[in-house]
Amino acid sequence: MKKVLFVAMALMLTINVIAQEKQVVEFAEQEYDFGTVKEEDGKVTHVFTFTNISQTPVTVTNVRASCGCTTPSWSRQPVMPGEQGVVTATYSAKGRPGKFHKSITVTLSNGTEDFNVVLYIKGTVTPMAQNAQTIKK
Questions:
Q1: Cβ contact 120:101 at 8 Å
Q2: What CATH number does the domain located at 28-128 have?
Q3: Is 83:73 a contact under the CB 8 Å cutoff?
Q4: Residue range 47-102, pLDDT digits in tens
Q5: What is the DSSP letter of 129?
Q6: What b-and-e string marks burial along 90-115, b requiring 16 or more CB atoms within 10 Å of the CB?
Q7: 74 CB neighbour count, 10 Å cutoff
Q8: CB 116 within 8 A of CB 19
Q9: Is the overall model pTM greater than 0.85, yes or no?
Q10: Domain boundaries, the chain
């Protein structure tokens, strides 16, 4: 039983080391909570910052949001080792009251391999207050 446990632990450690070797960037955060936002405020934006922790330049080749309510933008120039880049996520709250939890998939390349990092935004949109005239129509 001890041998099986030892082999399992060694395998998990090896997989963890391999995964760390593949990491090319480090995001300051991978999830952002907008908290409560008002529907009438329209769009809310958050900037995710990352640092290139590899020895080669890294380029963000694509950023995909999980739905049309989230618009991404990102650093277009290669990010040199030790330098920072950004991925910006803008969520359109108008017409979307209630809780939201959206993903943004970032594809990066070091010139020979592609890597994906998934970022998340979440929050709660409070609905617009309706006046008496709007309710009657």
A1: yes
A2: 2.60.40.10
A3: no
A4: 999 999 999 999 999 999 999 999 999 999 999 999 999 999 999 999 999 999 99
A5: P
A6: bbbbeeeeeebebbbebebbbeeeeb
A7: 19
A8: no
A9: no
A10: 28-128
